[in-house]
Amino acid sequence: MLSYQHSYHAGNFADVLKHSVLIHILEHLKKKHKPFCYVDTHAGAGSYSLNSEQAEKTGEYQQGIAKLWQTDDLPPAIAAYINVVKAFNIEKTLNQYPGSPMIARHLMRQQDRLFLYELHNTEIDRLRASVNKDKRVQILHQNGFDKSLSIMPPQQRRGLVLIDPSYEIKTEYKQVLETIMQLHRRFATGTYALWYPVVQRQRIDELEQKIVASSLRNVQLFELAQLADSDEQGMTASGMIIVNPPWTLQVEMQQALPFLAEKLGLANQGSYRIKQLKDE
Fold first, then answer.
1. What is the torsion angle, in degrees rounded to the nearest 10, for the CA atoms of residue 132, residue 135, residue 137 and residue 138?
2. Is the pLDDT higher at 201 or at 232?
3. How far apart are CA 148 and CA 117, in angstroms?
4. Secondary structure letter of residue 7 according to DSSP
5. Which domains does the chain have, with CATH numbers?
6. DSSP assignment letter at 137
7. Distance between CA atoms of 116 and 237, rounded to whole angstroms?
8. pLDDT of residue 5
9. What's the CA gap between 114 and 101, in Å, rounded?
10. To the nearest whole number, what is the mean pLDDT of the chain?
11. d(C-alpha 206, C-alpha 140), whole Å
12. Which end of the chain lies in a sparser environment, N or C, as judged by fewer CB atoms within 10 Å?
């Protein structure tokens, strides 16, 4: 049941979108001196080698981060993303890819705090090695869906929660929204970032409909597709649904997503969506 390993997919087009959005939100939180907390419900290993057998087997990063690595005239959000990834590649050769926990750790300040949840036995060991006893970071070998609720509202009263399960278990499409609703009831002013894959469009349509029908407010959707929708090609697109986004995020994505759709699309099928699911 816990077979998913992100090392096969690190740096792919979905990571480009997810981490560009993540970096923008974290940088926005840093504009105030007050501390914030970052919660990652499915943290993974933290860092990934793009020279590994897994990464080379799929080659997904070649159609993601690798296509942007030496590109000039990037939109601001993508330039910020590339600069963060370059910080993990000292010789400026693309060898390492930071996961969400390491990106957040790289951007956080002394007063900020990270809570990283991971259930996979192998991944939790790698995560601990990546973090290397940073006192600002708490690593929990627990189910982030269930246990993240216990720290809400956070002591800092400011923060971001990233929810990005593998969706190997089909019930997770329902569970992600239930988790956000529970967290939001305890911490209504927090920002929530939900990543989703498009494998079957119907599942995403249903998720959107449930969000629209919910009590949530100020919800935006950003989606990037490499290929047209298909039930036969695996993940063709992925997206981020943001509750309480920074007011600057939509403007940044209006520049970034058309660029990414053209640059990372396959067979001239790249596309994107930007949607205000719920008003403030």
1. 100
2. 201
3. 8
4. G
5. 6-278 (3.40.50.150)
6. E
7. 26
8. 74
9. 8
10. 94
11. 31
12. N
Chain segment 229-255, per-residue pLDDT in tens: 987 778 999 999 999 999 999 999 999
Q: 56-92: b or e for each residue (b if 16 or more CB lie within 10 Å)? A: eeeebbebbbbebbeeeebbebbebbbebbeebeeee
Of 73, 134, 164, 231, which residue is the catalytic one?
A: 164
Residue 1: per-residue pLDDT: 42
User: Using CA atoms, how far apart are residues 32 and 230, in angstroms rounded to an integer?
Assistant: 43
- CA–CA dist 179, 152 (Å, integer): 12
CA gap 217, 198 in Å, rounded: 23
Nearest to 65 by CA among 18, 124, 111: 18
Secondary structure (3-state) at 9: coil
Query: For residue range 50-70, what is the model confidence (pLDDT) as tens digits?
Result: 999 999 999 999 999 999 998
Residues 6+ apart with CB under 8 A from 271: 225, 228, 237, 261, 265
- Quote the pLDDT of residue 47: 93
CB–CB of 153/22 below 8 Å?
Answer: no
* 72 is a catalytic site residue: no
Quote the tokens at residue 123: 């991944």
Q: Is the pTM of this model over 0.90?
A: yes
3-class SS of residue 46: coil
When pLDDT is cut at 50, 70 and 90, the band that residue 262 belongs to is very high
**Residue-wise pLDDT tens digits, 128-139:** 998 988 999 999
